[in-house]
Amino acid sequence: MPGSPRTTCVVTTVALLLLVAAGGAQAAVPLNQVFTDPFTNGTSQHRTAVEPDTFAFGSTMVTAAQSGRFFDGGGSGIGWATLSSTGSVVANGVLPGLTTHNGNGGSFDRVSDPAVAFDALHGVWLVSSIPITSSVTVPSVVVSRSTDGGLTWGDPVNVEVIGIEAAAVSYPGFADDLAGLLS
């Protein structure tokens, strides 16, 4: 008899069993660790990788994240990993030349906000980030480049940052594009 308490109870029980079974299936998804925080300095939190960014092109995926997070912002370095189309790690490490921690070769105390991109025209992987000084200021934007498919990375180079006015002069469509993004 439709609408009876017994029918309602059976339907509710079946629905709950289906939800429990579906939840169990989601938990079975395997996780791959692609990077481990190598930093040991006493000024930041370790075993951390935060604020990640990932980009894929063709059969390659590159990810980058802050490693060794400071309580008030930034990390001891930028960790990276390059993965194949199957999700296996091909190479990983820390971008060189950014910070003073663990012999990284850089001059900055911290670094933050990694963003991954691929220059398809030149076949170059890019990771931009912002270095942070010991007085917690941001002096520039830097880009690290990989010309071998994300296997190794060069020291960062400074990026020339131009203001909105300069961009509008050098690219006439800039104002229209900006207005479209902000609306």
Write the layout of secondary structure elements.
Layout: H1 5-27, E1 49-57, E2 60-69, E3 75-83, E4 89-94, E5 110-119, E6 124-132, E7 141-146, E8 157-159, H2 164-170, H3 174-182
Antiparallel strand pairs: 1-2, 2-3, 3-4, 5-6, 6-7, 7-8
Query: In CATH terms, what is the architecture of the largest domain?
Result: 5 Propeller
Which strand order does the major sheet show?
1-2-3-4
| Shape field | extended
| Text of the CATH class of the largest domain | Mainly Beta
Instruction: State the separation between the terminal residues, measured CA to CA.
Output: 56 Å
Oligomer: single chain
SSE run: HEEEEEEEEHH
Helical segment tally? 3
User: Radius of gyration from the CA trace?
Assistant: 23 Å
Strand content: 25-35%
The overall pLDDT average reads 81
Approximately how much helix is present in the residues? 10-25%
Would you count the extended β strands for me? 8
Class derived from helix and strand content: alpha+beta
What is the name of the CATH superfamily of the largest domain?
Glycosyl hydrolase domain, family 43
CATH topology type of the largest domain: Tachylectin-2, Chain A
What is the number of domains?
A: 2
Largest beta-sheet characterization: 4 strands, antiparallel
Low-confidence stretches: 167-171
